[in-house]
Structures are given as structure tokens and as C-alpha cells.
């Protein structure tokens, strides 16, 4: 059955558009679920959300059929969120839009209003004989139908999500202290324990111990045969943000993500070799230097039929 997502993508020859269309045909509930998550955030009083973090959350939340190694390809994210914002305009402006290739083959334009950015359809967004209907109310939300020859097609229905009562077993004060102590031990064994990035990371851990707790508990409960550590980290952050009280704000600076992912393996070595770590990138912004700062190295090649190279660290680091 043809829906508005199919209409938007079927005449776009770009490989990303066709991959997303193929994924949608197999998983028609995925894009509406993206919209549902953003709507839930709005109900919780949050004005912004990250499409990348949310897609990582959905990867772990549900076993979506894969189109690459880790389900929906990150390269499709800019296109996927644009499709959602066009068809369900009440979430438009919640994501920071930057002009990219997706705008070229989708025919969309980006507009800034104050600190927020919005995506809008252009003349090439729809094929011949199709046109957008003005956004219409759908209960408390908005939809943008598509019309052709007097026939109107509405966007697929979006599920209504309830805020979970709790995101995991409440973390106790002794557990928070134990987490901070374990990560302090990792920092103490680093080549330069006083590195400013490591000090910043420890402050983050002490303020938001729930993030690492959720990561570790999820990994130990599911015990995947292979996984993306970054995806697990984003799943943890989104899950907590989705369920936490609005007065506590959960953040995750990009330059700290690598420390969390490596610490996860350092403290749970049975999963070493089941997720991919990369060599440090060259640059001057101190991001992409997690291995160097923590004193880690990568094995030359996988061993014991593991999918990825193992992470190694100096003796004494725990």
C-alpha cells in the first residue's frame, strides 16, 4: 500500500533514498516510531532532541530488520529525520538541521529562526502531479498529507507512547560511589591522570552516574554477540533522558563518549573483541584521542574468531 513516505522517496534515484525506502517497506513502523519518541519528549517539556541518539536508542529498544551491520545505517539519518519533519511538522525544529546532501536529492530547504532550524519542502520534493496539503491537526499533533488528482494520502499513524515509570532500578548512593571509584581507578592508571579531559570526564561521571550504570546493566543483561559501544551509550543516554524527571538534565559531550565506551570494556573484559574501537584520529581539538589519554592500544588483528580487534591497556588499569 502506497503511503506518503513511499510517495516522497520512490522517485528519488539516490542510493540513500532507495535504501531508506526499502527499509521502510520492510519496517513501516520505524519512522512513525521516531516521530512518537520526539512527541514524547515534547510532552515531557523538552524542546530539542538528537536524531542520531534517538536512532541508536531504537536500535537497542527493538530488533529492527538490519540493512547494514548495525540496523539502520547512520548515513540515512539526515534523510530519515527530514522525511519525518516534513510529514509530521509538529516535530519540525526539534532537531538541528544543517544543509547536507539529503537536501539536494530531496529538494528541501533549511530555514533558521533564532536558535532553531526548520526543514521545508521545495519545488523538487514531490514528483509530478503531487502536492502537499497544508498541515492539518491530527488530535493534538500535526500532519502534512499529500494530494494527487483530488486523492489525499495521509502520513502513517504514529503510536502514542507513555512515559516509563522508571528507566531502570533506581541507582543508590553507594552504587554511585562505587561507579565513580571504579572510573577514578581507570584514570589513576592513565599515562597522565591529571589530563584536563580526564578531570572533566570524572566530574561528568559524578554528576550523572546513571549513564554508565545503564550502559553496563544493559550489556550484562543482553550479552550480545557483537555490538556498537557508541550505539549502546546513546541508547543509555536517550533512555534516561526519556524517563528522567525534567529537572535533571542529562548531557553527553562528544569528547567524553570515547572514555565511557572504553571504560565499559575495561570493567567488563569478557566483552572485549565484540565491539569495534578505532585508532585515535589526528586533530587539534582533543576529540578522538581516547586511546592516547587512557593509555589504550588496539590489537593488530582479531583473535579467537572475534569480530573486532581487542582493546588493550597498561597493566594495572582496571
What does this structure look like?
- This protein has 318 residues and is mostly helical.
- Helices cover 43% and strands 10% of the residues.
- The chain has twelve helices and nine strands.
- A hairpin with a 2-residue loop joins strand 4 (136-138) and strand 5.
- The longest helix is centred in the middle third of the chain and has 16 residues, at 173-188.
- It starts with a helix and ends in a 5-residue tail after the last strand.
Brief characterization of the structure:
The chain has 12 helices and 9 strands. It folds into 2 domains: 4-153, no CATH class; 173-313, no CATH class. It is 43% helix and 10% strand.
Which helices and strands appear, and what pairs or packs with what?
Layout: H1 4-9, H2 15-26, H3 30-43, H4 51-61, H5 77-87, H6 101-106, E1 108-113, E2 116-121, E3 130-132, E4 136-138, E5 141-143, E6 146-148, E7 151-153, H7 173-188, H8 196-207, H9 209-222, H10 229-243, H11 254-267, H12 290-294, E8 296-298, E9 311-313
Antiparallel strand pairs: 1-2, 3-6, 4-5, 6-7, 8-9
Helix pairs in contact: 3-5, 4-10, 7-8, 8-9, 9-10
Features:
9 strands, mainly alpha, three-stranded antiparallel beta sheet
Order of helices and strands: HHHHHHEEEEEEEHHHHHHEE
- The average pLDDT value, as a whole number, equals 86
Q: How does the overall form come out from the CA principal axes?
A: elongated
Placed side by side, the strands forming the largest sheet appear as 3-6-7
Count of DSSP-assigned helices: 12
Amino acid at each position: 500500500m502506497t503511503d506518503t513516505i513511499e510517495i516522497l522517496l520512490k522517485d528519488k534515484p539516490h542510493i540513500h533514498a532507495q535504501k531508506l525506502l526499502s527499509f521502510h517497506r520492510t519496517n513501516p513502523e520505524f519512522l512513525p516510531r521516531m516521530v512518537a519518541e520526539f512527541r514524547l519528549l515534547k510532552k515531557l517539556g523538552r524542546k530539542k532532541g538528537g536524531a542520531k541518539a534517538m536512532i541508536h536508542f531504537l536500535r537497542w529498544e527493538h530488533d529492527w530488520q538490519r540493512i547494514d551491520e548495525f540496523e539502520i545505517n547512520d548515513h540515512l539519518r539526515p534523510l530519515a529525520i527530514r522525511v519525518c519533519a516534513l510529514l509530521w511538522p509538529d516535530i519540525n525544529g526539534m532537531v538541528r538541521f544543517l544543509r547536507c546532501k539529503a537536501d539536494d536529492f530531496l529538494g528541501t530547504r533549511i530555514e533558521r529562526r533564532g536558535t532553531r532550524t526548520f526543514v521545508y519542502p521545495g519545488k523538487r520534493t514531490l514528483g509530478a502531479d503531487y502536492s502537499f496539503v497544508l498541515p492539518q491537526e491530527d488530535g493534538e499533533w500535526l500532519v502534512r498529507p499529500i494530494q494527487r488528482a483530488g486523492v489525499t494520502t495521509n502520513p502513517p499513524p504514529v503510536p502514542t507512547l507513555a512515559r516509563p515509570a522508571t528507566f531502570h532500578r533506581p541507582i543508590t548512593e553507594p552504587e554511585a560511589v562505587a561507579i565513580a571509584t571504579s572510573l577514578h581507578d581507570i584514570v589513576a592508571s592513565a599515562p597522565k591522570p591529571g589530563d584536563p579531559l580526564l578531570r572533566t570526564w570524572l566530574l561528568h561521571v559524578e554528576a550523572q552516574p546513571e549513564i554508565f550504570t545503564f550502559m553496563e546493566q544493559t550489556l550484562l543483561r543482553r550479552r550480545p554477540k557483537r555490538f556498537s559501544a557508541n550505539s549502546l551509550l546513546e541508547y543509555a543516554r536517550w533512555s534516561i533522558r526519556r524517563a528522567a524527571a525534567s529537572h535533571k538534565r542529562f548531557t553527553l559531550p562528544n569528547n567524553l563518549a570515547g572514555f565511557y565506551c572504553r571504560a565499559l570494556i575495561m570493567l567488563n573484559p569478557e566483552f572485549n573483541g565484540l565491539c569495534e574501537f578505532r585508532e585515535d584520529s589526528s586533530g587539534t581539538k582533543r576529540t578522538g584521542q581516547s586511546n592516547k589519554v587512557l593509555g589504550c592500544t588496539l590489537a593488530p588483528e582479531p583473535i579467537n574468531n572475534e569480530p573486532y580487534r581487542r582493546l588493550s591497556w597498561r597493566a594495572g588499569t582496571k
